[in-house]
């Protein structure tokens, strides 16, 4: 089932998400719905707060990125088949020199800005079977994971841009929170009268 994506301005996007256990109700259905919702909106990542649930769950499928021009063969093969559900994730380490990449977000449509992040992460997480893993990721893959991880920490990519850029997009952010936006996927806006 395709769920509405929560728009910028909703308080759930600012909550630090809670750890869950393997007995979380209807978990398999939730994960299936999240993947369907993400694909319907042409996303490469989706976090539970973006569908209104303040729990530490996010998913990533970077296969659409593999088609981008300008990637090396190594980057393309890294992104092409990567699909992972992250539960109760905790970034243990971020290393390397920060680099900029133009990011967007399904909860903040039509806004893209350069965000600086470190290129390599070490992350501990559980998969959809609640088996624990510790893995390292780098490059674009690490960036997508960092972006989704921020969601379960109550952080948005717009928090990481300069004060000047924040002022320049303030009106657009306000319009998103009021539902004054044209978008081709289902969203829920803070003003509940505005539904699409």
Question: Could you explain how this protein is built, in words?
Answer:
By secondary structure, this protein is an alpha+beta fold. It contains four helices and nine strands; from the N terminus they run βαββαβββββααβ. Strand 7 (120-126) and strand 8 (132-138) form a beta hairpin. It is globular, with a radius of gyration of 16 Å. The model has no long low-confidence stretch (mean pLDDT 94). InterPro entries: Peptide_deformylase, Peptide_deformylase_sf. Keywords: Hydrolase, Iron, Metal-binding, Protein biosynthesis. Its EC number is 3.5.1.88. One of its GO terms (molecular function) is metal ion binding.
Neighbour order of strands in the largest sheet: 2-3-4-7-8
Helix-strand pattern, N to C? Answer: EHEEHEEEEEHHE
pLDDT below 50 for ≥5 consecutive residues: which ranges? none
The structural class is alpha+beta
> End-to-end distance, in Å?
16 Å
Query: From the alpha-carbon coordinates, what is the Rg to the nearest angstrom?
Result: 16 Å
Helix count?
A: 4
Strand content: 25-35%
Q: What's the domain count?
A: 1
CATH class, please?
Alpha Beta
Number of strands: 9
Average of per-residue pLDDT values: 94
Helical content band: 25-40%
CATH fold name, please?
Peptide Deformylase
CATH-derived architecture: Alpha-Beta Complex
What is the overall shape? Answer: globular
Major β-sheet profile? 5 strands, antiparallel
Fourth-tier CATH superfamily name = Peptide deformylase
Pfam family, one: Pep_deformylase
Active site: 148
Binding site for Fe cation: 105, 147, 151
Catalytic activity: N-terminal N-formyl-L-methionyl-[peptide] + H2O = N-terminal L-methionyl-[peptide] + formate
